[in-house]
Amino acid sequence: MIKHYLFFVSIAMSMISCMEDPPQALGPVPSQRQLKWQELEYYAFFHFNMNTFTDMEWGLGGEDPSLFNPTELDVEQWVETVKNAGMKGVILTAKHHDGFCLWPTKTTEHSIKNSPYKNGEGDLVKELAEASKKHGLKFGVYLSPWDRNSEFYGTDRYVDIFHEQLRELLTNYGPIFEVWFDGANGGTGYYGGANERREIDNKTYYQWDKTIAIVRELQPEAVIFGDNGPDIRWVGNEEGWANETNWSIMRRDEIYPGWPRYKELRGGHYDGTHWLPAECDVSIRPGWYYHASEDHQVKTLTHLLDIYYQSIGRNSNLLLNIPVDDRGLIHPKDSIQLMRLKEQIDKDFAEDLALKAHVQASSSRGRGYKADNLNDSDDGSYWASGQAIDTASVVLKFNEPTTFNRILLQEFISLGQRVSEFTLEAEVDGKWQLIDSQTTIGNKRILRFDTVRSSKIRIRIKASKGEILLSNISIYNAPTLLVAPEIKRDKDGTLTLKVPDTKVQVYYTLDGSMPDLSSTRYTDPFIVENESMLKMFAYNPETEQKTGITEQKLEVSKKDWSIVKGGEKSSHVIDANSDSFYTTSIKDQNQVIVDLGSSMGLKGFSYTPMQARFPHGIITDYEFSVSMDGGNWTVISKGEFGNIVNNRIRQEIYFESSKARFIKLKALKVAGEKPNATYGEIGILQN
User: Fold this and answer.
1) Hey, CA dihedral for 668, 670, 674, 676, is it positive or negative?
2) Can you give 150-204 as a three-state secondary structure string?
3) Residues of the chain whose pLDDT is less than 50?
4) Pairing state of beta strands 358-361 and 392-411?
């Protein structure tokens, strides 16, 4: 028995001796709370507060609580919508800069308890927290440090109020996964009726050490968001993208709220001292809060997909804002786009082809860290290249030629982020061909590229800070993205029809007839000088699927047009770009005069209001005049652009046929407090 025992002990010791020691951490590493946050990847921001009812982005603080009065509020609809869209959590603007609190706080009267909502008995933070828990979503809170309502803002007393508000939110509403602090601090405000400017030192005023300690005490699992974390960082833009090179580490002690070198937040620091991964925050519309005037500006599927791949696919998490409307519901246009995005992501990542591949590496640390860990569907396993080996290659071999156009790579970030340069190659006709050359990987890196067919794929790690640790390689063949063509036309009349996938074909007509596969196929940009009715569709020849018919009226080309009277940037009125705009000055008399270059027959004109995020000076009442010589004018139309403030789309006004060489559009009345008129674009409708 003793001999048998010694024999088995000897075998066990021999097996242990064959096992390599695990790799050591390299540089800053994530905490457990940061790792849990990283796993969420995609979650929702709900901007819903006083601004929803004042049609503002930043309230001034003097708003009457009675204005907050949603009549159909349904947090179940919010939560079910984002859960169905694939999101794993929600964050609510519990208090924005105007100071209005969505919970019955004891710290101020400027809260939901003094609103008509549920006769002052409502607690929206509680309602959303409970709905999130019911549906299995994480719950987080946004609390603005800046408070434009509080009379005490700028004094030590307000800091105590701010800390008490934080304690209320972190004590009464269950587990919180993220606490979100905005970097906007100090400026003009109501401040209890003072209506003045107050400045603070945002590095020290809020006593950040104490603020962080409160979160750690009451919600130790919650990550804290801020320009400088301390757990997760702003990505340096509000457009939803990180740099292709994106380190999860930064020299954190250099950063503070309102840091002027914010562009560095987009890519992190190679020599970072702290683990500080990026969160990409972006709204599904131009604004963070709901504005009916933006109902036509919900981001397209193509745009949302770009955001997904440029955030989650670039080593970041994605916080996508959905501005709840003034009824208290997610608008149908927003929910439709959310579901379209979910459906397309599911299609793109439907089947991991790497599971069918045999994986080989140029080196490995040994038993327990071999290359087959890369496609074993186990997040806890990983391949290690071996001690002191910082360049290596991994080859995936398929039994037969395989078609693919996506690759997903992940480092084992528990022990640090390491890779700084890599390439992706495929063997085609017996030769390795470069598909892409990139830099960082981190938690997740997804590459998109033209479809390749090959039996071998090679990932070459060309530079790493130390031993290479990769936890996963996945390969996908995303289907062709079939969406309606995007239309662009310049001042000269050059028309461009754009689709995101080169496999997709576009067919069109210009005479108003319905296009089919026998119609003209779009190949290159072309000039359309005269007024035309464009009708078109996109077609996938592989599946024989096509989009619905899209149509757009094309006005006469503006190539010979010029501005007769107008200030700097007045040419934006006729540049065929509705995203640009011109705001008149007093000397312009709130009008723009255009020389058409020659006499033209007119039957109407068009006006496109400003499309930018913070619209102002939209013309509500107008006067349109024509002239043959630019001196003698005839008023040919005068009236109102109905509901244009809430529906900022192109307006068409028709009148009796007339001839003109010069046209003048004058603003008789504009929206907003300032008298200056703003023009996005002017056009004419011909006979």
Assistant:
1) negative
2) CCCCCCHHHHHHHHHHHHHHHHCCCCCCEEECCCCCCEEECHHHCCEEECCCCCC
3) 1-18
4) antiparallel
**Under 8 Å between Cβ of 185 and 227:** no
Cβ atoms 244, 312 nearer than 8 A: no
The secondary structure element, H or E, covering residue 331 is none
Give the tens place of pLDDT for each residue, 116-156: 999 999 999 999 999 999 999 999 999 999 999 999 999 99
Residues across the chain: 687
Find the distance separating the first CA and the last CA of the chain, reported in whole Å.
Answer: 107
**581 class by beta-carbon count within 10 Å (0-12 exposed, 13-18 middle, 19+ buried):** buried
The pLDDT of residue 227 is: 87
Beta-strand (E) ranges in 510-609?
520-521, 526-527, 532-540, 545-546, 550-554, 562-565, 582-583, 591-608
d(CA 24, CA 418) in angstroms, rounded, equals: 12
Q: Measuring CA to CA, which residue among 405, 242, 402 is closest to residue 310?
A: 242
pTM for the structure as a whole: 0.91
Largest CA distance in the chain: 118
Locate 642 and state its tokens. Answer: 């109905």
Task: Quote the pLDDT of residue 1.
Answer: 42
pLDDT number for residue 376: 96
Q: What is the pLDDT of residue 16?
A: 41
- Nearest 5°: the CA angle 221, 227, 230 is 30
The C-alpha atoms of residue 187 and residue 487 are separated, in whole angstroms, by: 41
Question: CA geometry: angle at 105 spanning 102 and 109, to 5°?
Answer: 90
Question: Can you give the pLDDT at residue 687?
Answer: 65
Q: What φ, ψ does residue 219 adopt, rounded to 5°? A: -140, 70
Catalogue the E-assigned strands of 309-439.
Answer: 316-321, 358-361, 383-384, 392-411, 419-428, 431-438
Q: 672 pairs with which residues across the strands?
A: none
What backbone phi and psi angles, to 5 degrees, belong to 471?
-100, -20
CA dihedral 167, 169, 174, 176 (to 10 degrees): -100
Cβ–Cβ under 8 Å, residues 200 and 258: no
Strands (E), 246-289: 249-250, 274-275, 278-283
Dihedral sign of CA atoms 579, 532, 296, 44 in order: negative
Residue 78: closest CA among 283, 335, 344, 317: 335
Sequence letter at residue 559: K
Comparing C-alpha atoms, which of 431, 379, 421, 425 is closest to residue 404?
A: 425
Q: What pLDDT sits at residue 19?
A: 55
What tokens were used for 529? 């000088």
CA–CA dist 200, 186 (Å, integer):
6
Joined tokens for residue 171: 């004590």
How much is the CA Rg of the chain, to the nearest whole Å? 30
